[in-house]
Amino acid sequence: MYYCEKCHSVYDENSCLSCGIEQLRKVRDDDFCFLTTVSENFGKMIIECFKNEGINYAIIPVGDGVRSKFALTLGNYQIYVQYNKFNKAKDIFEFLTENNSTEKLKEKILANVDKWHFENERAKKRVIKKLKLTQDNDLIECIKEKVEQAQSVEDVGLMVDNEHGILVKTDDVILWFSSISFKINL
Ligand SMILES: [Zn+2]
Prior knowledge:
Elements: E1 2-4, E2 9-11, E3 25-26, E4 32-39, H1 40-52, E5 57-62, H2 65-69, E6 76-82, H3 86-98, H4 101-110, E7 117-118, H5 121-130, H6 139-149, E8 152-158, E9 164-169, E10 174-178, E11 183-185
Parallel strand pairs: 7-11
Antiparallel strand pairs: 1-2, 1-3, 4-6, 5-6, 8-9, 9-10, 10-11
Bound molecules: zinc ion.
Zinc ion (ZN) is lined by residues 4, 6-7, 16, 18-19, 21.
């Protein structure tokens, strides 16, 4: 197996699929390899498990321009683990993801951004006000942030119109999404 020092990725062949560098060197047991990018909260949970399993890891907090625009903290972690424990770390990560309903629901909500909508203008204005935005151009981006950073996302069961309510709790706001139509409410 070969290792790209720039991308921290491992390949069968000696060229990097992501940056194109050729003649990669052989991977060493202690090389840190990119595992995944996850939310800060989920990242903390994964790291706890890695510690218990004796897996050496490295994390890099990452964000994007939007985060600094809203003066929020960096919300995600990139996680790297040493090559000799990479498969074990991957198994743990997959197990935790499968059993973490918050992460699954976040994925579901974020995968349906194109369906997000509000009951009416008043409902939309309420959300804008609650999020302390001065105008609505940033609204969707801001809600995306909130979902990504939420500490908990729960399915609270059947609501009106045969839809389930998905409750998204962050530090400062609670949002509701309808499970099928993706209507947003406070
Ligand atoms: Zn590369």
